[in-house]
Structure formats: structure tokens, C-alpha cells
Protein 1
Amino acid sequence: MTQPLLEVQDLRTVFTTKDGIVKAVDGVSFELLPGETLGIVGESGCGKSVTALSIMRLQRPGKILGGKVMFKGQDLTRVSEYEMREVRGKEIAMIFQDPMTSLNPVFRVGWQVAEPNRIHQGWDAKKAMTSAVSMLQRVGIPSAASRARDYPHQFSGGMRQRAMIAMGLTTTPQVLIADEPTTALDVTIQAQILDLLRTVNKDFGTATILITHNLGVVAGMCERVIVMYAGKIVEAGPTKDVFANPKHPYTWSLLKSIPRLDEDRHEPLKPIEGLPPSLVDLPSGCAFHPRCSFKVERCSRDVPALLRVGETQLAACWVTQAGTELKGA
Ligand SMILES: Nc1ncnc2c1ncn2[C@@H]1O[C@H](COP(=O)(O)OP(=O)(O)OP(=O)(O)O)[C@@H](O)[C@H]1O
Ligand SMILES: [Mg+2]
């Protein structure tokens, strides 16, 4: 069996707010295998970004209350801040949801892309800049040598996103976490960025965690997918199996809410009824039960564990764990 590159075990991250404790990540466990692209999907506020930030230990003001993030024999939740900085710069890179917050407006783009190699590999400015320019070129910035002298505001949204990717990749990390790398971009640029991530995955063998709202993106990019709801993983498995035969009613509803191009369907799309719950005050039992059309009595009482359902999938659902198929309206 392939050894996982990154292993997240029972991770729990909370925020203390005036309304109470927000359980943003509530017992999340998953593995990332070498070279794979793993998707994380779920409605806004379900804990995708906080999961990624917790892996990087950038979850502040949130607090990691428990769990492990195993990477190369070390638990990243326990290493010193100094060691963590080495990991962040070199081995695990993250592309943040908003590229403007992670590019510094007062430094030239090339200088920033070169920074990880200056700091972590000890390269001199010239060598680091040469490598930054070639990386900017690789991610498709035209006239990279001269554009490297631009400031972030002189770049378009798509170019900033590319610069972020270039910065993340200069040290050829083993893991790349891309948090909604295409949301703010128009469709053509989106497609280009996804192509770029595919190339990176193939050429550098970088294992990628791709966080997105877009199930089409998952279908086109990810071998495996994790579905989150209210801070927990509710379903996980190979993308083709999860999409063909979802084992959690939430996944089932998400898939039903997207239009299918290959079907002549005239019925209106069905959005998932109701809203995600407040993470301060979760419903009893399964957090999805108030919105679930398959629920049984037990669902409002006991929290289901994430267990194997069928050959390849995991689901946290009393109904499918009891062998019921998800069908009908
Ligand atoms: N700094 C913070 N203070 C308090 N609560 C926070 C903070 N950051 C995140 N949260 C809460 O943690 C929960 C998970 O947020 P997270 O950003 O991980 O969601 P997400 O799944 O990435 O959503 P989106 O798809 O909108 O990016 C949300 O309820 C959010 O309100
Ligand atoms: Mg997010």
C-alpha cells in the first residue's frame, strides 16, 4: 500500500467569539497520497479553509484543540514555529483564497516570487530572481523578465493568481494546497489556471489539495474527493464513485443541485433546502438532519461516525450505513 504523504488525524480547530465557541474543524481525518489531487468541497463556512490553514498552522486567531497533522514522521501541530516556517516555505505551499492578501503591494512581484529561495535555500538575490523569472514564465506570465519588475496592482487578477502559484512552486514543494484558486477569475482564466495546476501535478509530482465549491472542477481534476459539512467530513472516496453513487444525502443533494449537460432535463434545479447550521450551535445528532429528506429517527439523536459504506467510499450517515440506497426526490 502507498504510504500517505500527509495524514490528518482527528483535527479540531475552534474560534472563540462573543457568540460562543465556533467549531470550525471538528474531528477531521484524511490522507493525502504522493502525487494525487484531492478535492475538498462543501458549502461556504463548512471549514474547508480553516482545515487548510490549520495544516499550515496559520489558523490564528483559531486554536487547534486536538488531533495530529503527520508529515514526514513529524506532527506539525507540535513542531516549533521555527521548524514550521521551514516546512511552509519549502515543503508545503498554500495558494490562498484571496491572492491580494498574500502578495505584498509594496514589493515587486519578482522579488516576492524569489523570496522563498532567498530565505529557505539561502540563494543570493540574482540566482533567486533568475529562478523566479523562469517560474513566472512557466506559469504563463508573458514577458516574465520585465513583468517581474511590476508591482502586484499592475497585474490582472489571473496574473496575480499565477504569480501566487509561481511563488508556491519555486521551492518545488511536495504538497500544494490550493484554496479556491479560481473563484475570483473569469471562466477562460479559470480553465488556464486549472490546466496549470494539472501540469504542475504532472511535471513536479506535487500532491495537491484542491479546495473548491465547484463540483465540475472536482470531476475534472481530482482522483479523490472529501465532502465537508459543518466542520466534519460527511463523505469521502474516489471522485468517480462518489459522483456516480453518493453515500451521504448531503453529497446527493449537492450533485442534484448542479445542471447536467449530458441529460435532456427540463425540470428546474433543486437547491438544497434550508441553510447550513451555525457552527456555534449545531443541531443534535447528524448536523445535516434538519435538511435531510432521508432522515430517520436516530439521525436527530446520535452523531454518525465516518464509516465504510460500499466498496470504496466512507460516509457519516445512519441511513446508508444501514444499507438504504439514496433514490428519488
Ligand atoms: N477569524 C475567525 N473568527 C471567527 N470565526 C471564524 C474565523 N475564521 C473562520 N471562522 C469560522 O469558521 C468556519 C469555517 O470557515 P472557513 O473559512 O473554513 O469556511 P470555508 O468552508 O472555507 O468557506 P468558503 O467556501 O466561504 O471559503 C465558519 O463558520 C467561519 O465563520
Ligand atoms: Mg474558504
Protein 2
Amino acid sequence: MDHVIGLDRSQTQLLPPCLEDYVSDDAPVRVIDAYVDSLDLVKLGFKHATPKRLGRRAYDPGMLLKLYLYGYLNRTRSSRRLEQETKRNLELKWLVQGLEPDHKTISDFRKDNKSQFKKVFREFNLLCRQLKLFEAELVAIDGSKFKAVSNPRNHFTKKQLQETVEKVDKGIAAYLEKLDREDDQALNGLRESKETLEKKIASLKSRKARLKEQLESLEKSGEQEIGGHDSEARQMKISKAPSVGYNVQTAVDTKHHLIAAQEVVTEANDLRQLEPMSQAAKEELEVEKLGVLADSGYHQFQHLKACEEQGIETYVARPKTSSGRGSKGNRIYPKEQFQWDEEKDVYRCPAGQELKGGKLRNKPNGKVREFQNRKACKGCELKAKCTEGKYRTIQRWEGEEAVKRTEERLRAHPKRYALRKSVVEHVFGTMRIWGQDKFLTRGLEKVSAEFSLTALSYNLTRAINIVGVAGLLEAIEEN
Ligand code: SF4
């Protein structure tokens, strides 16, 4: 039996007479088209949204926004690939009405409208809220590290730069020593001539000059790190390996796993993100009260306190501490056995002694006071059960009461906290499958714009999956 036979290329075909016939009624591309058409691009601040009276005609930003949204939804993000797709993809031809902008026009559009994409993301969330897709009661906050366009080998901290300069200096000294030796034929078994050694020294010297320049500009800028391609990206572990990237933060609604708020930051850890992300989610959802789930990486005393003051109920796991264990792992009195006396501003220890507090000091996870009574500890009979040092210190963090209340909530609602993992993992897992966990642009502002497009595409896909193309088209029309 023969194989299935295709069309004869030279034979005239009766293809559908118009582009409309190539796109089915339930194609997601119709949602992109209708949604972008419904936006007020002038109000949103898109460049060239109002056509110029004179000069060369510009492309409609609406058309370019449709092109990008289609690309992000279909895993085609580069401007060159998008240019190619406008020439061969029938759905895209329908979407952009046969226009074929070149890759420079396409990439310039993303560059020129950096802050506008977040506004479009917000506008879409408004539509989702009208469709009651957000519960707006409980969100899960989490971060993920996305790779930057920067080679980790060319990205240094000040300390690393200084160490590399020292290594280069040692290399130069070693070659100079070899040069000083009279026999320039066979050194260390390698037949290196005087000329070769001089070349190596020159190359190391020019590397040293480059490193020195970087060190100077790092000192002048006051930044912590300097990078070859993206100086705003930071060293961080990505997939357990040292890399260079950005920390992407999301607040995800627990009802349908839609992203309520998103941000890109340069800090590698999440310690200072709880309050700003919770507040951003609360503002986006326009609610007075909001529950927030986050892992122990977000446990920061001041942030927990600040959240409480703003009507945000936190469910944040406390990091494992060594309270109740000495440095050798032996049992000592845990902090709970020290009673807090609010009135006297002291802790009372198991021996009945009062521990007085020092000044408030700044630490990475909050402000803290240390309570001690060195004199009492010196002759204490219970010392062996209390400390391995000369005296016992109890730390009291600013916002400790808020921490206690957070722990009580966690104990009272264990199922609520258990939701956290599945909610946020869905978001970042999907973005990884889409291959959108690596940025294509450089600099915080541009990568933030890129992530807004990724987050919008994610929410758009979720909304289509939940209410369907027809449901969304109807909602857009009614809006
Ligand atoms: S060692 Fe110090 S803090 Fe500990 S029980 Fe004795 S007096 Fe109190």
C-alpha cells in the first residue's frame, strides 16, 4: 500500500479566499486581538499610540503588542523569530493583518514601552476580577531565579575582583621569574621561548588593567557587583549552580492560580520581599484584608509586623532555629522558658534572675535587642543546663508579638499553609516549561517589562482555560 500522498505543488488550489477563514472561532489568537483592541493605548502611554501628522508613518503599537503577546503565548519571544513568523504563520498574518515589521521595529517596541507592559498586565487582571476569577482572600508569595544575559565568568563582586587581580599578579611574577632564568628553552618541561613568555606577560598585564578599570568603576558606582553584559544582574544560585540572574517575585491567588502581583528584584534572597509583595497584591486586588502564604525564606520580623499593621494576615513558616540546643547539640533551656516581663522590659530566666536588654541593633532579618545578666550567670548553679558560654543571651526581635501571632495562625490552619506549594509551583513550573525562565534583555527595567509579558501570557492562558475563548470574548466585548 502507498503512503498518504500530499498536494501537487504545481496544481492550482481552491484555498480559503480570506485570512478570516484560516482562524477557527475558538482560537486563542482571537482573544489577543479583541483584548488589545479594547485597550486605550494612548491612556496606557504607548509610544506612537497617536499617529503623527507629518513624517514617516509608524506601525500601530496595538499591532506590535498583539505580535508580542502572540509570541509569548506561543514560546516565540525573540524579535528575529517574530519577524520570521509574520511571514509564514497564518494565524499571525490574520492577527497583524498581513503586516511584516522588521526585527528592529519589533525589538524597539519592547524597548520603548518598558513600563507600559505592567499596565497592560494590570488591565487584564481587572477583567479577570470582573469575571470573578480572583478570590482575593488568600495569595501565595514566592520567588524564582531567572537567568540573565550575562556570563557568570565575567561577573564579579569587589572581593572577587581583588582576588583575581592578586592571581593575575602572581601569574605575572611567575612568568617574570621564568624570564629571569638564563635558560629560556625548557622550563617545567614546556619548551617556552622568551618571546612566548613575553606574550603571556603582556596578555596578563592587559587583563590586569581591565580588572583594575572594573574595580575603579565598581568603587565609583557604589554597586556590589559588576558584570560583563548585564551590570544590573546579580550572582545567585540558579538550579543549584552559581549563575547570574534576577529574582522574580509573584503573589498568586489561591482560587485559580492567577498572578495578582509580580515584580523583578536584584536581591538574591527573599528576606525583604514579604511586605512589598503582600502590599502590592492587596492594592492590585483592592481589598481591605488579605491572607498571605510564604515559605521560611520570607520570615522577617519587621515585615511580619508591617503586614499585620496593614490588615495582612501572614502564614509564614519560621526558619528552623537552634533554640534549646547548645553549639555541640546538647539540650539547654529553650527561649520559651524565659518569661517576658513587658512592664519591666526584662526576661526572667529559669533561675529567677532578670536579664536586661541592650540597644536595638540591625540584622539582615530585622532589628534585635540582646538580653543578658552576666553577673548572675557567673555564679549560677543552673549554668550547665543554660549555656556553654560565660553567660546566656536571649534575643528579642522587633515585631516578636506579630511573629507569635503568625505561628498561632499556622498552627490553627495547617491546611491553608499546605496550599502554598501547589499554588506557586504551578506558576513557575509553567514558565519553565515555556522556556521563559531566561531573560532575553538586559537591565532591571527591561527584564521587568519582559516578565510582565510572561506574567500576562500566563494569566491569559489560565483565563482561556477557565472560561474559554467564547467566554473571554464576550467579557471583553461587554467591558
Ligand atoms: S545561666 Fe544565667 S540566664 Fe541561665 S539560668 Fe543561670 S542566671 Fe539565668
